[in-house]
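Box S2. Input/output pair 1.
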Amino acid sequence: QWMNLDENGVVLTVAYLFALHDIGKAHPSFQYSNDEIRQKWEARGCDIQKYYPCKGFRHECRSRIVVQKLWKEGAFPPKTARLFASVLRLHHQGKADSNEGKEPDPMWWEIVQELEARIRSVFPPEQIKTEVKNCDALGAVLTGLLVLCDWVASSKCFGTCDAATDDAFCNWAIQRAEETLQAYGLISDLEDAFPYGVSFDEFWKAIPREQMRPVQIACEKMEYRKSALTIIEAPP
């Protein structure tokens, strides 16, 4: 409702946004930070000293600048484009640095455009004709979801793929995503993955009853399971 799209449109658009989250890594200050990769760029005649070393370069800050430039042609309404760009900027919230590096040579912009085109071909976003609603809430939801997706896809459980084509990679990723989300308990074949009335130690089998903390014992006696949100105030 906030994005003025149907469910399929939301899925495709959010997938497109999230697939762009690391596009700021297509920048010499990031690429040259790895010795092996830097040598490959140097062999291609790139001016290494112009961009390296770049202290405090943050790829997520660069991602925000890149997507705003990509979307200048009107991919999204202005306010919505700024919101989406901010979500990408925040996917490493704890980092204090905000150095997006100097504007690179035109070659790098061509690389960025090619990456975006490939992403768009896999996840074609729906056109959002009017500004999204409730920006604060939508931004919070998208940021939290992006952080979760980034951790899941970067985990050892998800693995790595050496597929030669985009199609082969997508087929592999769909299968691995299903298996990984199942393994983490984020999706389940059970009709009720979080059954009501199960005791704490039954649900969290790694924590024996005798090792439960006082606040856990107290909460177990409450009717908190019936509520959508529980606020617990207790000493750390």
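Box S3. Input/output pair 2.
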Amino acid sequence: MTATKGHEFEDYCLQRELLMGIFEKGFEKPSPIQEDAIPMMLAGRDILARAKNGTGKTAAFIIPCLEKIDTSMNHIQCLILVPTRELALQTSAICKEVGKHMDIEVMVTTGGTNLKDDIMRLYNPVHIVVGTPGRIHDLSDKKIADLGKCTMIVMDEADKLLSPEFQI
């Protein structure tokens, strides 16, 4: 995908607070991947998308996820699985920056960090969890993270996440 359709972020009927975060982050117009992915995700469709690095893939899934979070419900509503700690930190930072006017609670959790900190964090409301498969599995298996009401799951770099090295 290289050509845009000429859409604006305002065309997607996003919350004002989300639009503020989008523009403050420096996004001016949706990229081709964003033009295709955002409306489909907002409509609740499952998608599989592929685009080159630097084309706005992360914002293509973060924007609709943020839009669909209901802050009046204090449970995990979105799980974003990523293959590495570095990508988890980067993705959670973008979630927080774009959603900074929305009162959405974002938690990052990865292996190699203190499990006790994650347990303590989950005593407070969390709407979006960004994490690596092993740690998410551990938190869910121990019934620390309740994913039963989670309605959105994103697998960033799904090819890596579905490779044999991530099988449990």
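Caption for Box S3: The chain has a mean pLDDT of 94. The CA atoms of residues 94 and 164 lie 28 Å apart.
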